[in-house]
User: Fold this.
Amino acid sequence: MSGSTKTMGVLTVASLVVVTAYTVALGSNGWLWFTWVVLGLVTVGMLVSKPT
Assistant:
């Protein structure tokens, strides 16, 4: 796993914590969850792609 993939993983987990805290404190925001899902998919894409 490359450094950039690890960074994306940490960013994805940290953003999940932030979005969850926002949802608990202020209520759900669909755009935040949509953005987190996109970030998660990009991270998964980086994990499954093999550098050539």
